[in-house]
Each structure stands twice: as C-alpha cells, then as structure tokens.
Specification:
With about 180 residues, the chain is mainly alpha-helical. About 50% of the residues lie in helices and about 10% in strands. The chain is built from six helices and three strands. It has helices spanning about 20-50, 65-75, 80-90, 90-95, 95-100, 120-145, and strands at about 105-110, 115-120, 150-155. A three-stranded mixed β-sheet has the order 1-2-3. The chain is elongated, with a radius of gyration of 34 Å. The termini are far apart.
C-alpha cells in the first residue's frame, strides 16, 4: 500500500466573513451617498445662479497673472517655445552686444528644433555660421539639452523686385504675356 500524498492545490482565500462583508457594503454605501450629495449640491448651485466662491480658497478664486500664465504654459506643453521666446528677448546677453547689433533671431521651429537667425550682411552671416556650434551649446545649456539642434543663418534679404513702374492688376510680371 502506498501512502496518499496531499495534492498540491493552491490555498483558497478565505471567504469574507460577516464583518468584512458589512465593511465593504458600508464603504460602497458611503461612496454612493457622497456621489448623490455632490450631484444634489451641483443642482442646488445651478438653481441659485451658478457656482459661488465662499470664504475658503478653492480652484475658482482669482490668481496672480504670472501664476496663471505658468499654469497655462504647463497645461499646454509650451515650456520649450516659451523658453525660446525668452531667449529671443535676451538675445544680446546670450550672444553679446556686437553680434546682436547685426544678427537677429527670427523664428524657432519646435518640430525640427531649429533657430533661424537673420544677419544684416553676408560677412556677419559667415561669422555667425562659424559661431553656430558654440551658440547651440550655450542655448542648450540655458534651455535644456536638445532644445536647439541647429542654428540656420540667413543673409540679408533684398527689396522685392518690381519690373517697371506700370503693372497690370493681377499680372505676374513681364513673362505672363508669353504663355
């Protein structure tokens, strides 16, 4: 004869007793009552003419403008564009007075992380192209790593070329009569 070995069955969790069941039922009843009370309170406030602020601070109270703007920037995910906007305002302190007199940041492409800078002469554009790696490192140090990947340097833009003093409305220039 062989001795019977106990089977390896996982132990069942004990069934909740009466006290445990009562606690679970009480917790569910409290949550349901709280939900009904919140809904009733909102209906009551709507009948009185909307939500009103009381003596205690809550989320509807006015806040300082700076705090409201910071909250909006955080909620919308505008941290990097706002920081780059701050850089554009502090451009002379970042690049130096001499460079700032001749080179101005125009725009920032958030997707490509490219800062576009326009210079007033080709000589300054060449100079800024040589300084670009140093400026990218300085900007990333200020804004956070990877905020600016590249600086695109543009030279001076010339005036819009007009062909002759007299133009027909809607024409695209002297070539539109041939085709």
């Amino acid at each position: 004869m062989t001795a019977q070995q106990p089977e390896n069955r996982p132990e069942k969790a004990p069934e909740p007793s009466g006290v445990d069941l009562a606690r679970v039922a009480l917790r569910a009843a409290k949550e349901a009552a709280r939900a009904r009370g919140d809904a009733a309170q909102q209906k009551k406030q709507a009948r009185r003419g909307g939500l009103r602020s009381g003596a205690r601070a809550d989320g509807r109270d006015p806040m300082a403008l700076g705090a409201a703007i910071n909250r909006l920037i955080t909620e919308r995910g505008w941290e990097t564009p706002a920081a780059v906007g701050g850089v554009m305002g502090r451009w002379p302190q970042i690049v130096g007075e001499d460079v700032a007199k001749h080179c101005v940041p125009e725009k920032y492409d958030e997707d490509e992380r490219v800062l576009v800078v326009r210079c007033d002469s080709t000589a300054w554009a060449t100079n800024l192209r040589l300084l670009a790696p140093t400026l990218v490192a300085r900007l990333n140090e200020d804004l956070g790593q990877g905020a600016v990947r590249m600086i695109k340097v543009l030279g001076p833009s010339g005036p819009v070329r007009r062909y002759g003093p007299l133009r027909a409305p809607g024409s695209s220039g002297p070539g539109d009569t041939y085709g």
